[in-house]
Amino acid sequence: MNTQQSFLWPKVTLHVVERHRLSVSYLNMQYGGDKTITQTINFGGKIFIASTAVHSELDFKEIVFGY
Fold first, then answer.
1. What angle (nearest 5°) sits at the alpha carbon of residue 52, between those of residues 48 and 57?
2. Reported pTM
3. 38 SS3 class
4. pLDDT per residue as tens, the chain (67 positions)
5. Which of 20, 5, 19 is nearest to 56 (CA)?
6. Residue ranges of the domains in the chain?
7. CB distance 17 to 32 below 8 Å
8. What is the chain's alpha carbon radius of gyration, rounded to the nearest angstrom?
């Protein structure tokens, strides 16, 4: 699946006073790809016959706040 990748993960930390910090991070991952399957499979109740071309994509986003 990993023929195309995009990955971004910036993080910012603010030191307010000694031993106190606020942080925020943002994770954005995107993967995608094309493949021809080599054997017949059943995935999620759908049957994919061998030699069928399939396209897969994954898009994941996460925002984390911390103290």
1. 80
2. 0.56
3. coil
4. 556 677 778 899 999 888 899 999 998 888 888 989 999 999 899 998 999 998 889 888 999 999 9
5. 5
6. 4-66
7. no
8. 20
